[in-house]
From TrEMBL:
Signal peptide: none annotated. This is MORN repeat-containing protein 5. The keyword Transmembrane does not apply. It comes from Skeletonema marinoi. Residues 1-49 are annotated as: Disordered. It holds the Pfam family MORN. Keywords: Repeat. The keyword GTP-binding does not apply. Coiled coil: none annotated. It comes from the Eukaryota.
Length: 385
């Protein structure tokens, strides 16, 4: 009865039994067996966030710095470009100035060449103002070596007398100033110096054949210089003096009067290219009235002073005419003057080589009068017509 009644009652709740194989108990066992003391999952997440924030902050600062450096570098690049452009512009202007300077230099070179040619031909090659060195030669060992005073780069006027007491010698070695030792053959005076007709050939190749007096060239003689020049004419005391002709080795020729080895008086110098000057000379330079005729045509007639034209009339190769005052040997270097056109119908006032303004004939006549130049007849006739 008790069983039946107990069987009729509701069964008691079943007890849960832990099982090693139960899936529900595994997480708890795993969690307990692998956990690290003092470090939880929440702690790991917190550390990662802090580190990431630090790295992000550092990255931002680096980005800002990099951006600043980038901006600065861009500014420097822009500034450098501007400097390069400015430098290129400066270089361009410098090249332009260089081109102009080279053109001016080329013109200056041409002018310098012309001036050098004038100076070389009419001053240096003529040895203007050069004086003979004194003879300081003797020999205690050779009785045939004699002293003579001879300056073949100077000159003479008038014939010399030949003494009847002179004696003929075959060969005698003597020394002459500026030329050194040479072999002389001719007449000697009583003291053994060349006197009369004689010839000397120098060891350097030069040769003089002509008249002598007291050991010096006097009278007429021919001098062949070692450099290839040749002079024929009058001599005095060993100098070119009087009428004579000097042929330069390059083809130039001077024919006229000499004094103390330099052209002095009336003479004509012709350059190898055909240009020539004819007129008055002094100490080897143009001095007084003279005419210059360049090889390219035209004519420059005026008054010169020690190599420079003071006033004159210039007829250009193209037919234009100019009257002016000058301060050099260059006809284009006119300080003031008057310029006529080819047909003589137009007249300009000239200053410093440039046409300034067109003027009439009366004004031109007044300027020419102030300069001190008389108008050529062709201008006076054309005006009358």
């Amino acid at each position: 009865m008790s069983d039946a009644s107990s069987g009729a009652m509701a069964p008691p709740p079943a007890k849960k039994v832990r099982s090693c194989s139960s899936s529900e108990s595994t997480p708890n066992i795993s969690s307990e067996s692998h956990s690290t003391p003092g470090l939880s999952t929440t702690g790991l997440s917190s550390l990662d966030e802090t580190t990431a924030a630090t790295l992000i902050d550092a990255a931002r600062r680096y980005e800002i710095e990099a951006s600043l450096r980038h901006r600065q570098s861009q500014e420097e690049v822009s500034s450098a470009k501007e400097e390069v452009l400015a430098a290129m512009e400066t270089l361009k202007r410098a090249h332009e100035r260089l081109g102009k300077a080279e053109a001016v230099a080329a013109d200056a070179t041409k002018s310098y060449k012309v001036a050098t040619e004038f100076k070389t031909k009419w001053e240096l090659q003529l040895n203007v103002g050069k004086k003979p060195a004194p003879i300081l030669s003797s020999s205690e060992h050779d009785e045939e070596q004699k002293h003579v005073s001879f300056a073949p780069q100077h000159e003479i006027s008038g014939p010399s007398s030949i003494g009847s007491t002179g004696r003929k010698v075959k060969r005698i070695r003597i020394r002459v100033s500026e030329h050194g030792w040479g072999m002389y053959e001719g007449l000697l005076d009583s003291v053994g110096e060349p006197h009369g007709r004689g010839t000397i050939t120098w060891e350097n190749g030069g040769r003089y054949d002509g008249e002598w007096c007291d050991g010096k060239a006097n009278g007429h003689g021919i001098m062949d210089y070692a450099n290839g020049d040749r002079y024929e004419g009058k001599w005095k005391d060993g100098c070119r003096f009087g009428q004579g002709t000097h042929h330069f080795k390059d083809g130039g020729v001077y024919e006229g009067q000499w004094r103390n080895a330099a052209p002095d008086g009336q003479g004509k110098m012709t350059l190898k290219n055909g240009s020539h000057y004819e007129g008055s000379w002094k100490d080897g330079k143009w001095h007084g009235p003279g005419i210059v005729r360049p090889v390219n045509g035209g004519e420059w007639e005026g008054t010169f002073q020690l190599g420079k034209c003071t006033v004159g009339t210039l007829r250009r190769p193209n037919g234009e005419l100019e009257i002016g005052r000058y301060e050099s040997v260059n006809p284009d270097d006119v300080k003031e003057g008057v310029w006529w056109s080819i047909d003589r119908q137009k007249i300009w006032k000239v200053e410093n080589g440039q046409k300034k303004e067109e003027i009439n004939f009366v004004m031109a006549l007044e300027i020419a009068s102030q300069i001190g130049v008389q108008l050529p007849n062709e201008l006076l006739k054309s005006d009358d017509c």
